[in-house]
Task: structure prediction
Amino acid sequence: MNMGATFNEAKHLNLKGSSSAAFDKPSDEAASTTMTMSVPPPSNYQLVPSTCDSPSRGHFDEIYLKGVWGKSTRSASDFYSDAAWPTKAMRASSASGPGSNLGYATETSLKIIKDAIAKYHVQSMIDVPCGDVNWVFDSLETDTLPIYLGLDVTSAVIDVNNVRFHHHNNKFFSFWDATECVLPKFKNGTAVELSSFELVHVRDVIQHLTLVQGVKTKEHEHRRGKLVQKQFTT
Result:
């Protein structure tokens, strides 16, 4: 059974301002399965596990498609302004809700991530849930991370993200239910050992989960991340 996939393959698989954040060091990581796979460069990263399904698949797609949180799911082209000035209003708004709009809602959150990247020399990051990534790449530090993996339980936004960033070799997106599956590790090229992502960013998700789901998600986060950063709406 194939337990890994290149990030390139993963691309094709089907918050009001926050001033508080928690940086948690995970407990000892559980043993993981290593694997061998011939992968041509430059897309030579493998995710292990490579996929994660969800019993609630489709639930959040309806929320996005109907615009329950403000904006309905947008096309990749909606994130560009075609050199218009002022920038079109739609560019500032997020289908993930007003808490992901550009401006006051996300300025502090982005600064917290930038500070973590600088302080801990972060080279790889999981963003879960990533939503429509309306704001997270609005800095040099986040946009140029060597490895960024966005995970979300909403197929609609993952599909748009994969179209929008298909030409970016450092950004990858995959459907993932963090309440059901441990977060993935990755393997680079011919390396023998699997690597944990250095930063796991979690923002404003706990309110969407039951108590049991919240506990399982926290466990899955800490088994995979070297540094887990949580941000909460204040």
Remarks:
- The first strand starts at residue 5 and ends at 6.
